[in-house]
Specification:
340 residues, alpha/beta, 6-stranded mixed β-sheet, 5-stranded mixed β-sheet, 13 strands, 37% helix, globular
Length: 340
């Protein structure tokens, strides 16, 4: 069975995945993420020397295009539309999945794999009512979790299949423990999503899988850097440098700064100064792409245009960043939906 066929099987399933499937996938991903190739993911300066929080592709000579995927929020179908989307790479037309198989492209997800949010508002309300009545695994919550678990399986399988070319950054929704600390805040928006997610996983699976999943979340990188591009989940709250991002496990304020920053709460100049620290002085063409806060149209500009938000939950858009070119949000944000 091909990878695409396997992913389609996941998409078409209407059942919760088996425990062993999730545990095996999570364990394999944790092992990979904690020990990635240090040529592009430098290791922390700790005794364990685990892979750090920075993906640095500035020194590599491949000069490949980059696709940036905004917040996913359980939209497993969005991922499949992206994989089937045709792009021009190396003077040839091919799907994103084919480009990944040929190592001709980088794909960076900005995180927030979980919680369907506004698109399933009524479902969250029904699930919340059942949760308050003592039922954490109601039918609405099962429907929600099936979508979440489909999404994470697809992301994990893509990471394992294309470890150097497919990456997922940590978002603020990557917090299965619903914890306060280590750069996380407990989460609630439509309902008590964080608590409900955790309770469901305890009821349907067990603490061992929850722990392994938390290890997966805490091993995700925070930031990806290319010669003309920086990517994170959220706008950097303050000026950052390579050392602090690499050693993110010892700097929870850095995790918070790259996953939770609200509009208007970042320091003025945090983006341009951080770009200079991460890319170098020759950074006139560099832009910083992120999601986190929804935009009304296709994008929103902040920090004098150096920071570009691309997450519109009502659209299925990606950013296509070509090497050596400055990203233009007017022409380089593409819809992956097939035209009727």
């Amino acid at each position: 069975m091909s990878l695409r066929e396997n992913l389609l099987d996941i998409c078409n399933s209407n059942f919760l995945p088996d425990y062993s499937v999730l545990m095996d996938l999570s364990s394999a991903c944790v092992n990979l993420l904690e020990n990635e190739d240090s040529s592009y993911r430098p290791r922390e300066r700790t005794q364990k020397k685990l892979s750090g929080g920075l993906l640095n592709f500035c020194k590599e000579s491949k000069n490949l295009p980059v696709i940036v995927i905004p917040d996913i929020h359980a939209r497993f179908y969005f991922l499949m539309h992206i994989l089937d989307f045709k792009i021009e790479v190396d003077c040839k037309k091919m799907s994103v999945l084919q480009a990944l198989e040929k190592n001709l492209i980088y794909v960076i997800c900005v995180g927030d794999l979980f919680h369907s949010e506004v698109r399933a508002y009524s479902r969250w309300k029904k699930a919340y009512a059942a949760f308050k009545d003592g039922n954490p695994t109601s039918e609405p919550m099962c429907e929600e979790m099936i979508e979440n678990l489909k999404t994470v399986q697809i992301v994990m399988k893509l990471k394992l299949a294309f470890p150097e070319n497919f990456h997922c950054l940590k978002g603020n929704h990557e917090n299965i423990l619903n914890e306060e600390g280590r750069g996380n805040h407990s989460f609630y928006k439509m309902a008590l999503e964080g608590e409900m997610f955790y309770s469901f996983m305890r009821e349907k699976y067990d603490d061992a899988l929850i722990y392994m999943w938390s290890c997966f979340e805490h091993s995700l990188p925070l930031c990806a850097v290319f010669p003309n591009l920086v990517v994170s989940h959220a706008e950097p709250a303050f000026v950052l440098n390579k050392t602090k991002i690499i050693n993110f496990r010892d700097n929870p304020e850095v995790v918070l700064a790259l996953t939770w920053t609200a509009n208007g709460k970042a320091q003025v100049g945090s983006v341009s100064k951080s770009i200079k620290n991460l890319v170098g002085k020759d950074c006139a063409k560099v832009v910083w792409l992120a999601g986190h806060r929804p935009v009304v149209q296709r994008y929103a500009l902040r920090q004098r245009g150096k920071f570009i938000q691309i997450h519109n939950p009502n659209m299925e858009n990606i950013a296509f960043v070509r090497p050596f070119q400055k990203f233009n949000p007017e022409t380089d944000i593409l819809s992956v939906l097939k035209e009727e």
